Amino acid sequence: MKRKILLPLTAIAVCGLSFIYLFKLVEQKNQKIKAAEAEVFRLWDEKIADYQFKVNVNYRDSEFMKSFFDSLMVSYDKLRVISSQKDLAEADKNYLRSFIFKQMAAKGFISKAEILQRLKVKSVAQMFEGTKLELLQRLESILSP
What we know:
Layout lengths: L1 H58 L6 H18 L6 H17 L5 H8 L12 H12 L2
């Protein structure tokens, strides 16, 4: 009789310990992934800050394109919001759309078709779809100096 009760209790104990072990293992992996993701976003933030520095040093005194470079600096600030893993407000998205598709296209730097090609999207509406990392990569491909 004891043997009939002992065997199921042992099986339940082994299953319980296995579940706890696997739960802890998954939790550790999730923490490692979050740490790696935070490092990736920190590196993106440094890259964008470097872009801001380069633009500021090279074009700070350019009166001819002052408004364009001021808008570019504001765009970099908005990218840094994404790199701190926050969501962009709708007003920020509209600002970036306007800057990229109006100012950049109007200045003749890049055509609207080429902008969509670099963003790897088919329409303007798809511009902000995807993960934050994909969004950073897309916008950086257009805004890099």
